[in-house]
Structures are given as C-alpha cells and as structure tokens.
Amino acid sequence: KVTIVGSIVNFLLVAFKFAAGILGHSAAMIADAVHSLSDLVTDVIVVVFVRISNRPEDKDHDYGHGKYETLAAAFIGIILLLVGVGIFWNGVSQIWLVIKGGVLESPGMIAFWAAILSIVSKELVFRYTIYKGKQLHSQVVMVNAWHHRSDAFSSIPAAIAIALASFFPSLKFVDPLGAIVVSFFILHAAWKIVKPTLFELSDASMIGKEQEIRSVASAVPGVESVHAVRSRLVGTSVLTDLHVMVDPEMSVREGHALSHRVRRAILDALPDVKDVVVHLEPYNGPVHEKI
Fold it and tell me: Which of 261, 7, 248 is nearest to 122 (CA)?
C-alpha cells in the first residue's frame, strides 16, 4: 500500500515534469523527470517482488523467498546506475554543444515550479515510506524510500540551475550543468542501494551479529564455550549456525534439550534471526579462533 501511494505521486510528477521540461526547454527538468520515471518503475518492481519474497517456504525454497527482495533492491540500483550515466552523458553533450558555439534555449519558469513541487512532494513521500519501511522491517521498502529522498534532493540543483538559466540568459549552460549534478545524486543513490545487495548475495558474514549470537549462546546454563559461529542474510532474515561445547559426560537427551534452549534463547533475544542450527561438541578446554 505504501508503495502504491508513492507510485501515484511518481506518476503525476513524471507527467508534469516531462511536460514542464519540454515546454520549458530545460535539460535539468527532463533529467529530473527521468529520475522520477525510474522511481515509478521501481515502485512496480517493489510491489511485485515483495509479494514474492513474502511467500512461505516450499519444496524448491527451503529457506523461503527472502532473496527475491534482495534481487529487487539490486535491480533498482542497476536501473539508477543506468539512468545516472545517461543523464550525465546528455548534460555533457549539451555543454559541449555550447562550447562549439551552439545555442540553448533559456528554460521557462514552469520548469522551476515543477522542481519546487517535486522537492516538497517527494520529501513527504520519503518520510511516509521510511516510517512504514521501519514498521514492516522491509529492506526493499526502505530502499525505495531513499530513492524518493534522492529524487527530492536531485530536484534542488535542478531548481537552482533552472532559476539561474532563466534569470541570466548568459548562463544558459547552467541548465545542462544542473542535469549533470542531478546525475551524480542518482549515481550516489544507486551505489548506496547496490552495495548492501552485493554484500548479501555474496553471503558475506555478519560479524557484528555473530558476536551478539555468541554472547547470547554463551549465557545459556550448561554451555561451556561457543565457537564456529556463522551467519548469512536472506532478505531481512538472518540464518546462523554455531558449535556449542558442553560437558562430555552429558547424555544425548540432555544435549538435545540444551541445544533447543540455546536456539530458543537466540531467537528470543535477536528477532531478526529466523533460523538457528546448533552443533554440540564435548568440552575439552577453550577453543581459540581467528577473528
């Protein structure tokens, strides 16, 4: 629902900003409109992929469908990268045209007011989406919220460039320069989105979370030592396994009960941990690990 609200705002902004950019002869505004269009496309991706990622485990996905959400976030980042590169290239081309003696039209004030409307509306949508993303603990909704914020920020240099180019005819080149500045905002936002998805898709270890897991498991009565803690992220869920060292004279029944207590303690203490595998070993003194 929160994504649909954002997509409605994006659709209206895309239509208005493209019209304002074309009628107002503003490269910066057209660049901003393309950014909003990428927002609209990613809204659709979010709606589709969140539905998929929320499906329960099945015979083909023992760990659920959480990584579909990660794939959605990665796809959003890649789209933003392509959009940023395209806008940068177009801005450079227009500045080169001016250098070669070409003439650019001064942007109209309709483009300026479109930028102001974009700043206000997208900041409101960002605040609403980030609030809901935190409530839902959804990575892809949070990512989409920051996409809204990047769109609001990108409209600021666009507004400044359009205003300068409109009021000072000798500064017409500032409009495509504004488009180039917008492209850097887009590329920065894209990297912030792609980086964590690469971290997750490569199954990188969550060192900080592993330290918390070790601490919780070590506090369970009957646990002598904990080592070989491993973790990985699947969507918004953490999966972990660990080796727990216990009294070597403990019975299988007692060990089985202790492993369940360790598992329950971790799940209760760390809500983002969704699955724990405990391996029991006889305790023969401390185990020294490379950290």
Answer: 7
Task: Pull the structure tokens for residue 232.
Answer: 């990985």
Count of beta carbons in the 10 Å neighbourhood of residue 53: 22
Q: Which residues contact 257 (CB under 8 A, 6 or more apart)?
A: none
**HEC letters along 56-85:** CCECCECCCCCHHHHHHHHHHHHHHHHHHH
| Token representation of residue 152 | 């609001």
Q: What is the pLDDT of residues 175-211, one digit of tens each?
A: 778 778 878 877 887 787 788 777 767 666 667 788 8
pTM for the model stands at 0.61
Query: Which string of DSSP letters, residue by residue, matches 73-126?
Result: HHHHHHHHHHHHHHHHHHHHHHHHHHHTT---PPPPHHHHHHHHHHHHHHHHHH
For 115-165, how does the pLDDT look when each residue is reduced to its tens digit (9 = 90+)? 888 888 888 888 888 888 888 777 667 877 877 777 777 778 778 888 887
CA distance 250 to 261: 15
